[in-house]
Amino acid sequence: MNEAKTKNSAFREVPYMGVIWVVAEAMKTGFYNGNPEWSNLGQGQPEVGEMEGAPPRITHFNILPTDQAYGPINGTKDLREVIANHYNNLFRKGKFSKYTADHVSVAMGGRLVLTRIFATLGKTRLGYQIPDYTAYEDMINYHPEKIEPVLIPTTAENSFSIPGAEFRDVVRSNKLDAYLFSNPCNPTGHVVQGAELNEYVRVASEENCALISDEFYSHFIYDGEQPGKGPVSAAEYLDDVDADPVLIVDGLTKSFRYPGWRLGWVIGPKSIIENINRAASAVDGGPSQPIQRAALEVLEPARAKQDTDALRKVFSRKRNYMVNCLRENGITVNPEPSGTFYVWADISQLPAPINNADVFFAEALKRKVMTVPGHFFHVAPGNMGKSSSPFNQSVRFSFGPDEANMKMGLGRITEMIQSFR
């Protein structure tokens, strides 16, 4: 029997985001987290267990009597100082302008950090690209009275990203007040880095366009088929951390493989961070104190380096296996991922009907494998252009699961494709 729905005009129908929809559909056919019979090649989290070369996973922390009380809205000073120093050590050595605790605001997860930022934006022409992180769509939709979304067209030839040489013209011609993007990009794995990222930061400062750089995959960096030498962040290219209008969003979820801790942060100019903290008092009320204390150990410099060096080595190997396997099956990989743990794949050359992302998803689900149809990453505030998405023949694959589970899923995908030839 179908459950009756309450009819009340006070509530809107909230659509599923891509990965949430994928999981909901899979659960209808027996999936649950940790089910060894399934391979979740759609998942948006990295493997969370012990990993070759990485320090042991943190499994215990103490709760102090003072933790029973409310903590600071913006996070404890101890953690904010550690986060500031994390950026200074990685990206600000030798620079006169450095981050302090007052440049950091901590929240329970990346989406909540972004929610605080969106709550702080005023009347804004906000530029964005597609494909990009699915949650941006609903966050923009929450503020139609003040945020005017401006889609900036991109091409596959440019890895679905704006070339640094074109960024100034994009900002000026579209009269942008702010620009939001994930870097490394979810879902394409493309990374804006080096001189190109420097140009983004320089243009943002000179054109007074706020740059909101979502860097949750900042340590998942690859140099071709080899692990990258280190993380990528806009923080490296700022002249003055208080003058340059750049907000950097990150956390423990991806690069440190603690998604269940729900701990994220934004780092940027003091004046903007102060506004974000004021918004937080109404949006959420502040992060968990015990989790913040545990995070101090995660970000201890030597441990953090060991952890993220191991991460790049292990995930680079998984990346290469997945890219090669998909190509051998007639799937086009474009761009080849230089970041994240995703592969953005073009399935248009597969035999019908599995050259359609929704059909591909449904057939893979029958084999207990999850993928994410590309059209979910068509960020379209107000549902603009959804019906004619250019990504109906694109699929996001994740090499987030452990290696054995990933290989199991890819083996089933191979068998599926062969069955349609």
Structure description:
This protein is α/β, with parallel strands linked by helices and 421 residues long. It has 2 domains: 149 residues, Aspartate Aminotransferase, domain 1 (Alpha-Beta Complex), CATH 3.90.1150.10; 235 residues, Aspartate Aminotransferase, domain 2 (3-Layer(aba) Sandwich), CATH 3.40.640.10. Helices cover 34% and strands 13% of the residues. The protein is built from 11 helices and 15 strands. The strands form 4 sheets. A 7-stranded mixed β-sheet has the order 2-10-9-6-5-3-4, sandwiched between helices. A 4-stranded antiparallel β-sheet has the order 11-12-15-14. A hairpin with a 2-residue loop joins strand 7 and strand 8. The chain is globular. The mean pLDDT is 95.
Which CATH class of the largest domain is shown?
Answer: Alpha Beta
* Low-pLDDT sequence parts: none
Strand content: 5-15%
CATH level 3 topology of the largest domain: Aspartate Aminotransferase, domain 2
**Count of alpha and pi helical runs:** 11
Strand segment count: 15
Strand line-up in the sheet with most strands: 2-10-9-6-5-3-4
Give the H and E element order.
HEHEHEHEHEHEEEEEHHHEEHEEEH
**Percent of residues in helices:** 25-40%
Give the number of domains: 2
Average pLDDT, all residues = 95
> Any guess at the CATH architecture of the largest domain?
3-Layer(aba) Sandwich
User: Main β-sheet: number of strands, strand sense, barrel status?
Assistant: 7 strands, mixed
Radius of gyration: 21 Å
Euclidean distance between termini CA atoms: 40 Å
Q: Which structural class should the secondary elements be placed in?
A: alpha/beta
CATH superfamily of the largest domain: Type I PLP-dependent aspartate aminotransferase-like (Major domain)
Shape: globular
